[in-house]
Amino acid sequence: MKKKVLVTGGTGYIGSHTVVELQNEGFEVFIIDNLANSDIKVLEGIKKITGKKPVFEELDLCDYDRLHAFFTLNPGIDSIIHFAAYKAVGESVEKPVLYYYNNTVSLLNLMKCMQEFRIPSMVFSSSCTVYGQPDELPVSEDSPVQEAVSPYGNTKQIGEEIIRDTVHAYNDLKAISLRYFNPIGAHPSAEIGELPIGEPENLVPYITQTAAGIRDELRVFGDDYDTPDGSCIRDYLHVVDLAQAHVVALKRLLEGQNKDNYEVFNLGTGKGVSVFEVIDSFERVSGKKLKYRVVDRRAGDIEKIWADPSLANKEMSWATRYTLDDAMKSAWDWELNYRNIV
């Protein structure tokens, strides 16, 4: 019998790519999404890639009664991968109450339902933002969780604490938090990719939309950081590599390979890349010169961070396969396909 997995936020960027990998591995997938930052058409892209459209329910996780009714009507779900959250660092600085309410209440409602409906396993979409600006690089799982520099980052810290405390209180629950760095790129089919609603908050869709003529220019937030070229440094990993890590983590829980009821893994390439290096990569693979302008630093941004992914490499036998150029080419192919640009 197929394992049934609920993917919250499953029509979003990382969620949709994870749904593809789950269906390719034979899981029966259920999606809950309120479509606040995604498009229902993503389901057609998933179907084109995998041959099957997942079960979909438009639902806000903050609505406990409707969430409870969903689990009542869909018995036998074995596990949850929880993506659904507001995720823009800058917006969270401007709208902290919105972020704290949405990102914590939705998780609390899920945890209550996990207990009542006896769903034992959860993979949680966490973030490298829990490390703040680390004192030492690269960042390992033993690196201290620092005071968050944005409300978004703080909701991820709080989320991890909620899950950790819950699984330690109830021995029949277990969870893995995946602290990932900066996902970029798109599925090689170009059927799904990063599709933010409105103006992109993330670097790569802003690059591709600028190159496609949707945006007038890219703004680079600061070139006076203490980095080799003055721009911020991040660890960019291909979204397909990231999606596959979620499947590996889920199987680890379902097959009882976890060494503790609550585990944490960093997901990244182990290499820091600057904003200007990302721009160079895009120009190299697309053959297009990008119009950009350096502006003031953005509130909530940290200077530099990249992962030590060795624990995930060892314990989950997972590692990134795609390069930065691979990711940028797939992001551009997706943009061209989505905009019907020849």
Describe the protein.
By secondary structure, the chain is an alpha/beta fold. Strand 2, helix 2 (42-50) and strand 3 (55-58) form a beta-alpha-beta unit. It has helices at residues 13-24, 42-50, 64-73, 89-94, 96-116, 151-169, 203-211, 239-254, 275-286, 310-315, 324-338, and strands spanning 4-8, 28-33, 55-58, 79-82, 121-127, 174-180, 182-184, 218-221, 233-234, 236-238, 262-267, 273-274, 292-295. Helix 5 (96-116) runs parallel beside helix 6 (151-169). The protein has two domains: 4-183 and 237-267, 3-Layer(aba) Sandwich (Rossmann fold), CATH 3.40.50; 203-234 and 270-338, Alpha-Beta Complex (UDP-galactose 4-epimerase, domain 1), CATH 3.90.25. Helix content is 39%, strand content 17%. The strands form four sheets. The chain has a seven-stranded parallel β-sheet with strand order 3-2-1-4-5-6-11, sandwiched between helices. A two-stranded parallel sheet has the order 7-10. Strands 8-13 form a two-stranded parallel sheet. It is globular, with a radius of gyration of 19 Å. The protein is built from eleven helices and 13 strands. The mean pLDDT is 95.
